[in-house]
Amino acid sequence: MESRSGHLAWLPHLILIAGLLLVGFPIYVTFVGSTLTTPEILSGHMSLLPGGHLVENYLEALTQGMPQLSGVPVGRLLLNSLVMALTIALGKMVISFLSAYAIVFFRFPGRMVCFWMIFLTLMLPVEVRIVPTFQVTANLGLIDSYGGLAIPLIASATATLLFRQFFLTVPDELIEAARLDGAGPLRFLKDVLLPLSSTNLAALFVILFVYGWNQYLWPLLVTNTASMTTLVVGIKSMLTVDANTPWHLVMAMAILAMVPPAAVVLLMQRWFVKGLVDSEK
Amino acid sequence: MQRRVVFDGKLLPMLLVAPQLAVTLVFFFWPAAEAVYFSTQAQDAFGLSTEFVGLDNFRAVFADPAYLHSLGVTAVFSVSVTLLAMLPALLLAVMADRVVRFAAVYKTALMLPYAVAPAIAGVLWLFLFAPGIGIVANMLRWLGIDWNYVLNGDQALLLVIVAAAWKQLSYNFLFFLAGLQAIPKSLLEAASIDGAGGFHRFRTVVLPLLSPTTFFLFVVDVVYAFFETFGVIHAVTGGGPSKATEILIYKVYYDGMVGLDLGGSSAQSVILMVIVIALTAIQFRYVERKVHY
Q1: Taking a contact as any Cβ pair under 8 Å apart, which residues of chain A between 137 and 196 contact chain B?
Q2: Keywords of this protein's UniProt record, alphabetized (chain A) (predicted)?
């Protein structure tokens, strides 16, 4: 152990607590806002302790139609976000797993072309080619559909490269053993490779779910009707230009938009940190 | 790197890559090619016909004072976000690496903003700083500071910088902490025995060993500030007041989707592509070198 002078032992804790306050304060104030009424928030001296309207605010947000969202309740946006995030996460995992498997475990014509095509997509985030991607999606009739929300964001390579990296570490003996047992490539995929990859899959799920859930620019463009938009995008429509912003509902929406991705990160913390640090470096 | 032992067959692997290839072709290569194509075309006012104009759109973009202004805003924004997201994260990671008690609590709490969408981070900070409503805004007013980011461009820029950096802090923290924990304790002990004090030890042993992480995070944070902060800007300021917070990615969106200037917006897209390709190439070159040594 590092030697340390005892009288300074509290300093790291002090700095870390300051860090926690910095991280926690905006979230806490938002939570407090979601338990008050809008007049209480607008009064100019908002309480720093939660008020008594927690249940009714969240119920109002989830179930009642919002005029700012053309009469759609926030519950619907929550569902859209969930469908989009899950489709992106699971879709990306499936197509990446399969293509990485093909590239690593087979020699087939065009293999390197496939690899480089997939690799190139790392270079350009969707934000950069946003207008033409929107046009392609519109031409395919995917505006205001779950397919339009999710599929264009599935086309990226990070997951493929991660799986490729991992598959290359799988010992050759495993393939030979599987062959001796008479197992074909699909059997090997299902019974050997899939269980071996469970940690990677879990880590990737967290990262991709958060990625999908937090999207903003893409769902903003690809949805025109309020009933198809996501929670993260819908919150902006609630911030009206005039002074009629229903702040208690905006704050409830903000909390609702934070809880699912935060829960996924917290519940799968161990895999998430491992997956994040391993995949990016 | 290649495998020695592989499966036979040609059709099966092609079927397995087909889904990813299809999505990539339709939603990646096609739009990217269109962006390049449209960047060389001019459209008439009614969008009825287009004409090849070579590099005119690029010349127009670089001659446009609004674009140069946006370039300046982006530079200030991305440098500030990167510094503000990295320095506190490094300090917090060094501290978290040092404590034993409550280490897991600190780590868990500090990683939370990772899960928050940039747009939601923007709304959280907006709520603190909204004039007349926000707790911090009222405090500033009470202190005699005339805080109104809706009218004051510098204040608006400051607000989106803080919100964007806050969101990225946890990502940097996790990587710095992982980097610190990978440093062999024996090295630090050796430095200790040589009589190096805490700060000296940090500067001469820890910081050099942490430089790969720092460089990696620097590139990631710049890319983040350039491309992923759209939500913060759109939700909090809408690029205003009077374009004070209009970063490049916002301008591409605004000119293309609101202003319907397809040629100009595509030219801007292509410029951004070049920037991001350069950043990624730097990162890969560097990572590759690290793998070799």
Answers
A1: 137, 140, 151-152, 154-156, 160, 168, 172, 175-176, 184-186, 188
A2: Cell inner membrane, Cell membrane, Membrane, Transmembrane, Transmembrane helix, Transport
Partners of residue B160 in chain A, C-beta under 8 Å: none
Residues B56-77: tens digit of each pLDDT = 889 988 989 999 999 999 999 9
Q: Each residue of A126-179: pLDDT tens digit?
A: 777 888 889 899 999 999 999 999 999 987 778 888 899 889 888 888 888 888
Q: What is the pTM of this model?
A: 0.91
Interface contact flag, A239 B123, Cβ < 8 Å = yes
Q: What does DSSP assign to residue A49? A: S
ipTM: 0.90
Bond prior to B241 in cis (omega within 30° of 0): yes
Residue with the bigger pLDDT between B281 and B253: it is B253
Cα(B274)–Cα(B272) distance, integer angstroms: 5
Task: State which residue of chain A sits closest to B184, comparing Cα positions.
Answer: A1
Task: Label each residue of A182-205 as H, E or C.
Answer: CCCHHHHHHHHHHHHCHHHHHHHH
